[in-house]
Structure formats: structure tokens, C-alpha cells
Amino acid sequence: xxxxxxxxxxxxxxxxxxxxxxxxxxxxxxxxxxxxxxxxxxxxxxxxxxxxxxxxxxxxxxxxxxxxxxxxxxxxxxxxxxxxxxxxxxxxxxxxxxxxxxxxxxxxxxxxxxxxxxxxxxxxxxxxxxxxxxxxxxxxxxxxxxxxxxxxxxxxxxxxxxxxxxxxxxxxxxxxxxxxxxxxxxxxxxxxxxxxxxxxxxxxxxxxxxxxxxxxxxxxxxxxxxxxxxxxxxxxxxxxxxxxxxxxxxxxxxxxxxxxxxxxxxxxxxxxxxxxxxxxxxxxxxxxxxxxxxxxxxxxxxxxxxxxxxxxxxxxxxxxxxxxxxxxxxxxxxxxxxxxxxxxxxxxxxxxxxxxxxxxxxxxxxxxxxxxxxxxxxxxxxxxxxxxxxxxxxxxxxxxxxxxxxxxxxxxxxxxxx
Length: 418
Ligand code: TRP
Ligand code: SF4
Known about the structure:
The structure is a single chain. By secondary structure, the protein is of the alpha/beta class. The protein contains 18 helices and eleven strands. A seven-stranded mixed β-sheet has the order 1-2-11-6-3-4-5, sandwiched between helices. Strands 7-8-10-9 form a four-stranded antiparallel β-sheet, covered by helices on one side. Helix 7 packs across helix 18, helix 8 packs across helix 10 (about 175-195) and helix 10 crosses helix 11. The chain is globular. Iron/sulfur cluster binds near residues 350, 352 and 386.
């Protein structure tokens, strides 16, 4: 049964619906029945959308290879705002995915002017968070990965400046390194498929990151030698830029197939089998055989100050190494969905969906669904004051950080392993 994915509904969903219909992102509801276990971030309506998650769900169910990848730009310390993506990656690793994490030091250097030394230090902090959460897999710094750079160069043959202008608003003043950091990210997303095998790849991102995903999906498609399409009663394998030898090999592999100028038509074969074989032929002829990457989209945890959670607004978020007193103060000062007066709060109840602290609990601090439901109820029925609720939340955050730091220490020897 597919549960109501948004029992704690948050206002953000309204705009999301519009965003989805404009850009063709599907609701996460469409895949919930396809996975054996529904993680809390899908159950609670944090991850709300996806592109092509079906191929990931199928890989999880059938225990076939898939990759799970994300990247962090080391331009500031990791904080609560980074935790969601990290958990999504770790969960998918636990479901059998090959984990990949890129430290986008080239991007941090090009776009934010962070020194290489600082990038190295900050990168380690992100990695220790990931390992503390149970990450296993491959990690690298963009600047040190030569094969990644070659892949980025190859990918760059498929993207021109007008496309970058359309997607990112680049202007003639944009420096080349910025453009290069975009193509590095494209390469990051495709990298697991050259490092291991071509396989479905999932990139969990915040909803604002969809432009990167669209660009990369386009490039992945353009880098294929062939397209495989199901037509009426047959399958058409079309060459986009395949060498004639490769097209001949396709023809030879399927008895009874017909070869034409630039395409081969195949009858009586399941499309998936044809795709697989064509991919192998592509690889044997020096192609990439990429699967078009998939993505999931999560909503943002609002900052404690109301707006965005960002390290450039220190009061909006909590870093993983902040002292207890600071953490408590930030939580106690957080924007709530409480009423103006105590009397009103008792009579009308609070508004948890507008409360940065409720959402902090929903995202990370309360793992048990029943406990969370209780917090919601107490709030809505006016059974608790915001002061008391904040205090309890602060205690949870402080305990969470204590345990998390211990795990980070324990994981420290894993950093530096490539
Ligand atoms: N651009 C991302 C950021 O600003 C970091 C990043 C680099 C990334 N490569 C990636 C994210 C690949 C997802 C996948 O944080
Ligand atoms: Fe937020 Fe708690 Fe106040 Fe409700 S009672 S608005 S959840 S701080």
C-alpha cells in the first residue's frame, strides 16, 4: 500500500507541484510501491520528487548494480543543512548501491575563491560526517582525479555557451573556470559509470539543483553512440555518432534484424535485452554506454532564522562542532509557528508546518514516527508552550551532536582512503 506521503504536510508542497508540472519531475508517490522498504525521508514528505527513480527501485529489488552519488563544495563547514543528502546517500548504499562522494574543490576554488589548502581541510570534515553516518564507497577530490578531468573534457564537447547561458544565466563576463566547474559536476555524476560499470545512477539533490541534473541527463544522452526505441512491433536502434563497425555489430548480434542507413530494426526481442546488448557493443567500440542518471528532490529544511539555512547566515544553522551553549541559544532563538500570546497558543494551538524547530525535528531529530506525531499533536492542541518545546528540541539537538561527534572521531581513520 502506498502511504500518504505527506502526513505532516508542509506549505512548500504547493509551489513544488507547479515546479514539477513545469519541469517534468514526477511525484515520489509513483515509486513508493516499488521499493521493499520506504525510508523516513520519503515517508515524511521530505523527498518529494524524482526523475527516473524506477530504474533505481528496480535495481534495489533485483539486487542489480546501481550507483549513488553526491558532491559537496568545501566552501564552508558542514552543517545541519547538509545532513539530508548525506543520509539519502548512506541509505542507498545500505540498499546495495555503490557509494560515491565527490569533494568539489575545483568548484569551491573557481566560484568562491577558497584556497586549495582550505578546500582540503573542509573536505575532510564532510567526509568524516559521511563516514560517521555509515557511508561506504569511493570518495575523491575533483582536483586530484585525472580520469574525472578527462571525462569532463569529453563531456565539454557536448555543451556550448548558449546552453550554459540558458541554464545558469552565464554572461560573457563569466570566467572559464566557472564554466569548467559546471562540466566537472556533469563528469562527477557520470564518473561511477566509467569507474565501475555503466549502471543506473542516483543523484539526490535539493529541488533547486535540478538544472545540473537536466544538463547532465542531456549530456549523458548525447554521449551515447546509439538510441534504442520501442516502436510499433519492433525495436529501432539508431546510430547517433556510432562508427559503421559498431552498427554492423548490432546487426550481426540479432538474427533476423534489418540494417538500414544509420539504423537497425529488430523484431521479437524484449527492449531491455536489446538495450543491454547495444550497450555492450557500444563499450566494445570505445563508447560510454551511459545510463541516463536519475535524481530525487528533497524540500529544504528552513533556517532557524526563517529563511534559507546557510553557513553565510550563522544563526540560521548549526555546525557539527559548535559548543553546547551556542547550539542551545540558536535553538531557543529559532522562529516558531507559535501564537502571539500564551492565551492564543492555548486556544488555537501552534502551527508546526510554519515552525523551523518542528521541521528540524521532522527532518533529523525525532526518528520515531509516533513521537513526532505526538509533538505535532501537543503543538496543534495548544498543550505545550513554544518555550518548553524549544527546550526539548535543544536537548535533542545537543544529544544528537554529542553522539555524532563521537562517531566522527571513530570514523576519522577512514578519511584519506581513496
Ligand atoms: N555543486 C554542488 C554544490 O554546490 C556540489 C557538487 C559537485 C555536486 N559535484 C556534484 C552535487 C555532483 C551533486 C552531484 O554543493
Ligand atoms: Fe513549534 Fe513547538 Fe511552538 Fe509548535 S509548540 S510552534 S512545534 S516550537
